[in-house]
């Protein structure tokens, strides 16, 4: 009988991203295992377990957040893969998120809202290279679009002596001086929640004055926010699966082809109320977009939208496409599919029920449209998104 590999998972369970990694690892070992898993709940900043120094296992998957943890893992001589990326010069292969398409998705979503002012709220530079990349890509996209991007990154850990209250006051002061309306991308959901809280302190309306888009899509945290927060799902289970796959090869004696691997694209945006706003000068176009977003799931047609224009209905389609870059019909379909994606991932409804609630007359037609736009069936999308 072949030996069962013994694998240690040093991955916390307090964050949705990390839990997604674990789901991906579980899926890999179910399909290609079995593995004997060494796992105990711990926090991201906890010291490595004492037993690790004497452990005689075969492989380690870890979210390495400190040099001491890295040194302990390296001292074991056991094949390891890092899924954190906080220490870029480690002699341990890393697999993580490609932040370029993440930033592109956030920028395009907020630009489609008609926003012309943008900002980024993140972590102190140098604390995590991935957060730095996320910020840099977003700022570059904004500048390429002809705008400027304000940033708030806080202070380095060694300089930080502020309480939560003091930090919130600093973020609120930064928000107050931004031109409005503004679209803000945050580095992750934790920071996004802070920004929404700071908006309340500064008496700023969300999303009318400040639209907020975060990253990681922790549904519990995002729906706990007021208003519920839009967030990008970066598909952590895919990264967990790929990291487990790489570790499997390393345990068989292979050498990594490269030390840092970035996977993408993200699964998409879970759009919630924190970005439900419009900043469009053309009143007819803004009214049409608002009407579509409020009534698309009722099965409305483009002709109904055009007939509502107060001025020059005959030119609304042209003005609409010039503003958003797509037709009225395409926008109706986009909103309906957005609703369908949320229902697929956050409910147990049957496909026929989802089709109806998303505004499609027939389940068969819905399935055809969904596959055309997403390249997979609705059922497959649900399975991939929910890691079931």
UniProtKB/TrEMBL annotation:
Location of the HTH araC/xylS-type domain: 286-384
InterPro entries, alphabetized: Homeodomain-like_sf (IPR009057), HTH_AraC (IPR018060), HTH_AraC-typ_CS (IPR018062), LacI/GalR-like_sensor (IPR046335), Peripla_BP_I (IPR028082), Tscrpt_reg_AraC-type_HTH (IPR020449), XylR_PBP1 (IPR054031)
One Pfam family matching this protein: HTH_18
Cell membrane is among the record's keywords: no
Sorted UniProt keywords: DNA-binding, Transcription, Transcription regulation
N-terminal signal peptide: none
GO molecular-function terms, A-Z: DNA-binding transcription factor activity; transcription cis-regulatory region binding
Protein name: DNA-binding transcriptional regulator
Species in which this protein is naturally found: Aeoliella straminimaris
